Request: fold
Amino acid sequence: MSSKSLGMFISILMISLMTAVVGVADQPAPVELRGAELVGGPVTPMVLNVNLKDLPPAPIWHPGDPVREIPRRFYPGDKAPVTPQPGLPDALVDLQRSYTPVSNRAFTTTVANFSGQGYTGAEPPDPVGDIGPNYFIQAVNGSGTNVTIYNKDGSVAAGPFTLNSLGTDSCSDGDPIVLYDRLAQRWVLQEFNFYGNALCFYVSQGPDPVNDGWYLYEFSTPNNPDYPHIGVWPDAYYTTTNESPSAVYAYDRVNMITGATARAPQRFTMTSLAGYGFQTGTPADLDGADAPPAGAPGIIMRHVDDEAHSNYTDDPAHDLLEMFAFDVDWDTPANTTYTQLPSIQITDFNSWFLDYSTFATVPQPGTSSRLDAIREVILNRLQYRNFGDHESLVGVLPTNINEATSGSTVNAGLRWFELSKTGAGAWTLAQEGTYQPGDSSENRFVGSVAMDQSQNMALAYSFTDTDPAVYASLHYTGRLSTDASGIMSQPEGVLVAGGGTNGSGRWGDYAAMGVDPADDCTFWFTGEYQGSSNWGTQIAAFKFDACGCELNLDAPTASATSPADNTIRVSWNDSTLPEMTEYRVYRSRTSGGPWDLVQTVPDSSPGAGSGAAYSWDDTGVSGGIPYYYIVRSSDGGACLSDPSNEVSATATGACTLTPLFDGVTGVSSLGTSDCGLQISWDPATVQCGGSPVYNIYRSTTSGFSPAPENLLANAVAGSSYEDYDAVDFATTYYYVVRAIDTSNGIEETSDVEGAGMAAGPGGGVTDTPSSDTPIDIPDNDPTGITSYITIAETLPIADINVSVDITHTWQGDLHLVLTSPQGTSVTLHDGTGSSADNIQTTYDSLTAPDGPGTMSDFDGELQNGSWSLHVWDDAGSDTGTLNSWTLHIEANAPCQAVTDRIFNDGFESGTDGQWSWSSNHYKKK
Reply:
């Protein structure tokens, strides 16, 4: 390694080990979509009143019967040529290896560990399952989908049966999903019709999957819905699929859990990650007793290895978790949104397993055949929990511990992560780790991770070792919430040992970890292992003694009244248990929740039970509105009772609710000779019976706080406003719109800001290339070179991009600064990119400048004069050439600012009689 390479390596490694990291790697512009695609129409379910014990048994596979490979759809058109640079050694591996595991709280002793379904003649089995209060349901690929329902002791309650024998032959191609919807106490099973383009959902009619019956919903899809994942969320079953491009669906959970007609699914597609031919997002799936905050959108996530994807800039120290919010509006699909959230920067991982497209890559002993690590996705499931004081997301993805992006060395490990969100804040990285505690001959892959109610975690996965030989087995580990960050503290346990080699190359595709809702502590896992000749599946359960509660808490009995205006009094009895320390009061605007914790009431008789009753006055209610309540008793720790009976009351007094409003949606130039801007918004929803009107605030400063001096117009009706009030040409104006309910005069507090610049008719886009290039860039010379472009046009800039074509080895040596005729400078490239070759990009539209400065710093300046691009190389051994550069400028044509609009509209010769005006042009004087 050269001295420059060594120095660069050490510098980047030090950055990767810093505990505080600011910013994220360069990435494409965030996605913000409004208005979902409707897929088909409403679907009425088939009602299946059947006892599952009465279904015919699934066919048994015998040696000599056909072997069926379940396809994993590959889209070669999505794979762009890339020349990836290697990342850095994974420092998280060393962190894990430096820790000596300690068995803690009986975690290494399984609660249950028994064989699941055996070989069915399908490759791979796609084993999935979930745990409910009384049963574990497992599904695997067979001739379609084979399902078995187990009691918790491992005995069979029903099955195995084929899922299509329950209802229809329309979906019979496998890729199953099994989930227990805890909020609704319903089971959800799914399989697909790969060639007929359909997804079938089976939703149980009650909590007992054997006896309560099912509803079957069959939904068509526009493409093959390959590799589906489902997340249970209060407003939808969010589903992702591997299509071209990959797709995200919302299915009407609210109606499906009651057997009503489901409204048409809503769909968005995701941008493709160049470098993968197989890709999909993973939806967040709810665990625990508490729902997300009311109105919280569904969450979709995928990981980004920037060495693999040519539409990202290589950062050898970091990679990303991309997050998206799917906010479905079932009544008005045009209002449904799909929004990219801020990406989460994580330590660099490596998805180069032989290459970026081969499925079978993980070595196993005794054969040259390899197994699939499913490198392309965050593995099943992405678990969500609401702990009250914060929300969490827990997930796991594959990584090759060897950092090379060439060659055939594969040492598979698992990168796990925990994200956290407090209140209205953004998601942040709470911790991450790479679990690969052994040597380079060991491999851990196709895993699943989950967190219990006490924030302890468990991780289970497939395991191979080539020296000494260990065939594909199932192992597990875990950590307590009090352990040091970034490590799995428990000794690695063996759930089942492998006994031979697998020759198909297809492995797992799924594994599944859930948490028992009966105690919210016991982890249940299912996955694939290799028997002596064919695969098998295993089901196991384990828990920490440190989790949960040993008390059997009694649920309170509650009542509710309205003793005064804008007050509801909630009352309940004292617990019989002396261990109780507090009561938690939850409120909802709808019967059945979702519930928000609104008050914690301390126990007034600590150490004694069956004391005086309690009451709490909720004074944060509005008159005329019904409210619903439940109460739960708690010991202040892990112990929480079942909910009380649901009670409700309607408050008297004034209705004080603010309108529901999303704020300004757009600001655009009117393009007239008089300078004007149009401000637009979507109508607000009033909650107190009035009509919505709007106040409009204006400033020339972004981020302003609306105040009386910023009020441009008040009590505006409609959903747009034209501003001609002293609007200057070439000035950016910022607007905030707030809704008011006319019944109570209360203004909501939206701070959503829109911005625009007025322009007259005309203008346009010009491309001006450099005329003094090519120019050689001297090596290791801070003086560098300067190229110029002269522009004669005098119109102000509305938007500007700059395209640069530089041939040069080692981007990390280069610096580029663009300076306008007015002296504004923006650093386009500042020694980033490490050893990557050449800079051939357009800054702003494809690549964000490194900074300081952004391309928007030039907006509003006059474009005429001499522009300069200064380029220099600050290290030895690499040279190159500035081949060309081009300025792309969108210019605004001038318009005239007016101070009194009425006398510039043809009324100059009018009389002084009665005048009238439109409220759309009314402004505060």
About this structure: The mean pLDDT is 89.
